[in-house]
Design brief:
Number of domains: 1
Strand order of the largest sheet: 1-2-6-7-8-5
Order of helices and strands: HEEEEHEEEE
Largest sheet: 6 strands, antiparallel
Helix content: 10-25%
Number of strands: 8
CATH architecture: Roll
Radius of gyration: 14 Å
Strand content: over 45%
CATH topology: Thiol Ester Dehydrase, Chain A
CATH class: Alpha Beta
CATH superfamily: Hotdog Thioesterase
Shape: globular
Length: about 130
């Protein structure tokens, strides 16, 4: 399955490019392709809401990597914006820190093509299991 072609419209809307890597330990690496309309300051700096969505999305991919039947509802999310994010491809790497019965603790970081860390996030999420 080509996840880009079949991506949920929300993923398409936030600039999802592709899932680069995932493993059952609860790690995922996701590429996003920012578009000029995501940016302010004459189209040069991506708005923080998109950055937050990318990190949150990558953490959801990490949960799915750990257990494909489980979805994630964010209960708490903290983002630190460390550097400006320009309109160029970025990658978010996320991991599950702690997997509980109904709650997971997660972290993610966003990097540019040079490997510089642009933003970091931590999250607490409710694990949504099928009934």
């Amino acid at each position: 399955m080509d996840i880009r072609k079949d991506a949920h419209p929300l993923l398409q809307a936030i600039g999802f490019d592709r899932l680069l890597h995932s493993d059952p330990q609860g790690v995922a690496r996701v590429r996003f392709a920012p578009r000029p309309e995501f940016a302010h300051t004459d189209g040069t700096i991506v708005q923080g809401g998109f950055i937050t969505a990318w990190l949150d999305n990558a953490m959801a991919f990490a949960v799915a990597a750990r257990d494909a039947g489980v979805r994630l509802a964010s209960l708490e999310l903290k983002v630190s914006f460390l550097e400006r994010v320009g309109v160029a491809p970025v990658e978010a790497e996320a991991r599950v820190l702690r997997w509980g019965g109904s709650v997971a603790f997660l972290e993610a970081q966003l990097t540019n093509a040079q490997g510089e860390v642009l933003a970091r996030a931590s999250s607490t999420g409710k694990l949504l299991r099928p009934r």
